[in-house]
Write a structure and sequence with these properties.
9 strands, globular, mainly beta, 3 helices
């Protein structure tokens, strides 16, 4: 009786090898650049100010906003921001009155997508795959319009798009 020859390579080992060769999905890694990623991790929102210091300064998520953004090592992100003073729906159901729905839509945002970092490990661009603000679905944002500035365990997101007030969102790293 002939026994099959064992090569010592399993399908799992082969898949692990292929995955290892593919590496992380950040743009920097795909281009053979260092894979350091200054954004990777979870960050909690501490403030959000539109037109800071200007005549139209406002706080789009209220005086005590809450939210988080998580950047994975492999180039995906998810973020959810809200004004903590949005009242609960009186009915207890998921869909509220027109006024309740307008408060949620106007004072919260959730979105997810992919992002890339440059050779220094700093943000360079993202693509929004899905958003609670449907107009953003499929949009690509890149520097200098959208920037993330990291200083230790603090991160500042700065959006400076033509025709809209500057938006600054500040975060702290979640341990």
């Amino acid at each position: 009786m002939r026994r099959p020859v064992r090569t010592g390579v399993t399908v799992s080992a082969l898949l692990a090898l292929v995955a290892g060769l593919a590496g992380p999905a950040t743009g920097a890694a795909r281009e053979g650049k260092p894979s350091r990623n200054e954004l990777a991790g979870t960050w909690r929102m501490v403030s959000a100010v539109s037109d800071p210091g200007g005549p139209a300064e406002r706080r789009p998520y209220g005086d005590n906003p809450d939210g988080m953004v998580t950047f994975s090592e492999n180039g995906t992100f998810v973020e959810v921001f809200q004004d903590t003073t949005i009242p609960r729906f009186a009915s207890g159901e998921r869909v509220g009155t027109p006024e309740e729905n307008a408060a949620v839509v106007g004072r919260s945002l959730g979105q997810f997508g992919t992002y890339e970092v440059d050779r220094r490990g700093e943000y360079s661009s993202n693509v929004i795959i899905g958003s609670t603000w449907p107009n953003r679905n499929g949009q690509r944002w890149q520097t200098p319009v959208l920037r993330f500035i990291r200083a230790g365990d603090q991160l500042t997101e700065v959006l400076e798009a033509p025709g809209v007030p500057r938006l600054e969102i500040r975060f702290v790293r979640v341990p």
